[in-house]
Structures are given as structure tokens and as C-alpha cells.
């Protein structure tokens, strides 16, 4: 009995420490986001005083009204939504086609093609050659520069290929016996069976597309019509890094009432961060079950 009691005490100690560690980790993870929400919902002029942590001191929606009424922000949001939706659909479909191709045992060049793509994960031509290539292809100042260069994700391809290789061979063979070609088999058989892993990969790609801003800076910074929400946020963050720039921005946002600033850089930065993060946060709960299932099955079958 004493040994059993000792084991129970050890397990209880481990569970207690584990729970405490997870609580601390949760607090550390959530605090910056909660603080951003509090700042975004607080009066901008009052925020300058500091002391805003978890709860707004002077509630207001003026920060969000300003951001949502800005034509530039609204247009940038639409571009971000378009590149996320189109980029995710095109990338996942093309990556899945490649994964299905290299998963077939009867494909002679499957090992060579797989190696060629995997090497791109370790070696890159560099920033300048990449820019020159994009320019020579005529993709600068174009919406398609957001879609075509990253149309194939090698890591995602490996995940999907591992999942497809775990599918029953009889299902694919029966489709061929019925006279279905490779593309028909892929669209009607493989895609429906790989929904969990495709949902996982879609989440990866969508988050990457939504958060991307550096490609906008490189290729479309001179074209305001192709600016994205994340790039606009980056410009705001860069502007508010120095005290002088922050003061200039505060003067620019001055309202008509008494010449006082209606929206300060600090409040605008917090509001833009929440606006940029909210769509992904809203979508994730609907894909969570596919996300966990897809990663688990893909890892086991790989």
C-alpha cells in the first residue's frame, strides 16, 4: 500500500506542476493579445497616460470607427481576403496534385521529382536573384505575385503525400478498373478522402497568405491598389517606432474638436493588430478538428 500511495503522490505532484506550468504558459500567451484588445477599446488620448493592462479605462469604439472608415484600410483588407482565398485554393489544389503524382509507385521519376522539390527547402537562390526572376517574369506590380511564386509548398506536399500513401490501394485500383483516368481519380476519389489533411494544409497556407507583407514590400510597395492589410499594419508599426514619427502621426490624426488627437499611433497600432488577427481567429475553431486529425493521421501514415 505504501508503494501505491507513493506512486499516487508522484503522479499528483506531476499533474499539479503540469497544470501550473500550463496556466503560466496560457497567461503569458494570452496577455499580449488581451492587452491589445484593451488598448484598442480605450480612449486614444487616455491611452497615452499608460496603465492600460487587461481592461479599458475609458471605453470607446472610435479607434475601430477610424480604421474601418479609412478607404485605404478597407481596400487593403479586400486585397488580403482575395489573396488568402485565391492563394489557398490554388496552392492546396496544385500541391495536392503534385503529392498524388509523387505518391504513385508506377511513376518512374517520383524519386527524382521529390528530391528536386525537397532540395528547395534547404537551398535558395537568394533575395536578389529571386527579385530579378520575379521582375523578368513580369510579376512585379501584379496581384499574381502573391499567388504564383508560392503555389507549391514542399512541406505541405510531403504531408499530403504521406496521407495519400496510407489510403487503401484497392480504392484507387477500382477507379482505374472502371476506366477513370488519373485526373478523374484524383478529383473524385483522392480529394474527398484527403479532406482532413487538406483542411490542415489549407490552414497553414491561409495563415501564411494572410500574414504575409514582405512580398508586398518587395514587389508592390509602389502600387497602393495592391497593398495588403498586413503591409499597412507594418507601415503603421514602423511609423510609430520613433517618438518623432509618432508625434507627426498624432498630428496627422488630429480631429476637429479642440485640435486634440482622436486616434494616436499607439491606439491605431493596437486596433490594426486586432483587425488583422480577428479573421484567422474566427476561422480556426471551424478547422480545429480537421487540423488535429490531419496532423495525427499524416504523421502516423508517414
UniProtKB/TrEMBL annotation:
InterPro entries: MetI-like, MetI-like_sf. It is a multi-pass membrane protein. One of its GO terms (cellular component) is plasma membrane. Pfam families: BPD_transp_1. Residues 77-280 form the ABC transmembrane type-1 domain. It is found in: Cell membrane. Its main location: membrane. The chain crosses the membrane at residues 12-34, 73-100, 112-131, 143-164, 185-207, 267-287. Keywords: Cell membrane, Membrane, Transmembrane, Transmembrane helix, Transport. This is Sugar ABC transporter permease. It comes from Paenibacillus abyssi.
Amino acid at each position: 500500500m505504501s508503494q501505491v500511495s507513493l506512486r499516487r503522490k508522484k503522479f499528483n505532484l506531476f499533474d499539479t506542476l503540469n497544470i501550473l506550468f500550463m496556466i503560466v504558459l496560457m497567461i503569458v500567451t494570452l496577455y499580449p493579445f488581451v492587452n491589445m484588445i484593451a488598448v484598442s477599446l480605450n480612449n486614444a488620448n487616455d491611452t497615452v497616460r499608460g496603465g492600460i493592462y487587461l481592461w479599458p479605462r475609458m471605453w470607446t469604439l472610435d479607434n475601430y470607427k477610424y480604421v474601418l472608415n479609412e478607404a485605404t484600410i478597407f481596400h487593403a483588407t479586400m486585397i488580403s481576403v482575395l489573396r488568402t482565398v485565391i492563394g489557398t485554393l490554388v496552392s492546396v489544389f496544385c500541391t495536392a496534385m503534385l503529392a498524388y503524382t509523387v505518391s504513385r509507385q508506377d511513376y518512374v521519376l517520383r524519386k527524382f521529382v521529390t528530391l528536386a522539390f525537397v532540395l528547395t527547402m534547404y537551398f535558395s537562390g537568394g533575395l536578389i536573384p529571386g527579385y530579378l526572376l520575379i521582375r523578368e517574369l513580369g510579376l512585379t506590380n501584379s496581384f499574381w505575385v502573391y499567388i504564383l511564386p508560392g503555389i507549391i509548398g514542399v512541406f505541405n506536399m510531403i504531408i499530403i503525400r504521406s496521407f495519400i500513401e496510407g489510403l487503401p490501394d484497392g480504392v484507387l485500383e477500382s477507379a482505374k478498373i472502371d476506366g477513370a483516368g488519373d485526373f478523374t481519380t484524383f478529383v473524385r476519389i483522392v480529394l474527398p478522402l484527403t479532406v482532413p489533411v487538406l483542411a490542415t494544409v489549407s490552414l497553414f497556407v491561409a495563415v501564411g497568405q494572410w500574414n504575409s507583407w514582405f512580398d508586398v514590400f518587395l514587389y508592390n510597395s509602389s502600387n497602393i491598389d495592391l497593398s495588403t492589410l498586413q503591409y499597412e499594419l507594418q507601415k503603421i508599426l514602423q511609423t510609430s517606432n520613433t517618438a518623432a514619427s509618432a508625434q507627426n502621426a498624432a498630428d496627422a490624426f488630429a480631429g476637429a474638436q479642440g485640435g486634440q488627437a482622436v486616434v494616436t499611433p499607439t491606439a491605431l497600432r493596437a486596433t490594426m493588430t486586432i483587425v488583422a488577427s480577428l479573421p484567422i481567429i474566427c476561422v480556426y475553431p471551424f478547422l480545429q478538428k480537421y487540423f488535429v486529425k490531419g496532423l495525427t493521421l499524416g504523421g502516423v501514415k508517414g
